[in-house]
């Protein structure tokens, strides 16, 4: 058994290639075999550049080898037996059993773009949380004063005077106070439970349909093999509710010849990266609508609390993103006319009890 076999590299989603000083292939893992279209047995001992055409050459790799430096080639274009691929390549010189090798780690450009997008969403969520919490604190104190003044006014009014208007003030102050309390949720999730994700989706869908009178066509594309999730059910159901309500609002007022449609889809992903963290298994929940779509000018900042739809306060999507990120997950969005998809990703955790 070779020294490379002992490294358990075949379990990695990253394509790994080892070269010797002469740029001859010593080893490639299964992900690299799929990327390049060759098996390790086929090309072991072959010069890499006799097998592929790339926009970097052997001299580039020799420089890394001689200078003992690590480097990065961004969006390298590589033509191999598998066709033309665009990949980011991390190059390092490493020592194994007193021998020196060049280690090439290939990641698709799309993979790195997704990591950057997730990191931007995570940063956006931190800014949103800071803004929402500051706003909530600013609102909380005046609300107490408004309610107290209304209660005092009610006691001072003549007995034959209707208290209808003071009750409206008190009730609305209570409602806003409850909203502020929810905006000041603790940073950590509530107690986790083992939950079927489809039950949470169904509950959120039921609430949404009760609140919307317009007919909505619902398409369910569930993965029946989905395992239970260990999570805070109230928080994730709230996130799903916000996403489904957002989809329902997006299709309100659709023309008679085209019914508003929401598709709910679940899948399990393997070796999926959220931000910079790679997870063995991730649950993906898609909420798709056939509304007019989100304008490009709003799409990048859609999770900021100040961005609102036609009937929303602008807080729903921001709160949904915040609750999901507390679980190590993320919500991503893609939109074009007649197809907007919010994808909720949650790392799969197991209950070991």
Automatic annotation (TrEMBL):
Residues 134-350 form the Histidine kinase domain. Its EC number is 2.7.13.3. One of its GO terms (molecular function) is ATP binding. InterPro entries: HATPase_C_sf, HATPase_dom, His_kinase_dom, HisK_dim/P_dom, HisK_dim/P_sf, PAS, PAS-like_dom_sf, Sig_transdc_His_kin-like_C. It holds the Pfam family PAS_9. The keyword ATP-binding applies. Keywords: ATP-binding, Kinase, Nitrogen fixation, Nucleotide-binding, Phosphoprotein, Transferase, Two-component regulatory system. The keyword Kinase applies. PROSITE patterns: HIS_KIN (PS50109), PAS (PS50112). It comes from the Bacteria. Residues 9-55 form the PAS domain. It catalyses: ATP + protein L-histidine = ADP + protein N-phospho-L-histidine. Member of the two-component regulatory system NtrB/NtrC, which controls expression of the nitrogen-regulated (ntr) genes in response to nitrogen limitation. Under conditions of nitrogen limitation, NtrB autophosphorylates and transfers the phosphoryl group to NtrC. In the presence of nitrogen, acts as a phosphatase that dephosphorylates and inactivates NtrC. This is Sensory histidine kinase/phosphatase NtrB. It comes from Aliikangiella coralliicola. The lineage of its organism: Bacteria, Pseudomonadati, Pseudomonadota, Gammaproteobacteria, Oceanospirillales.
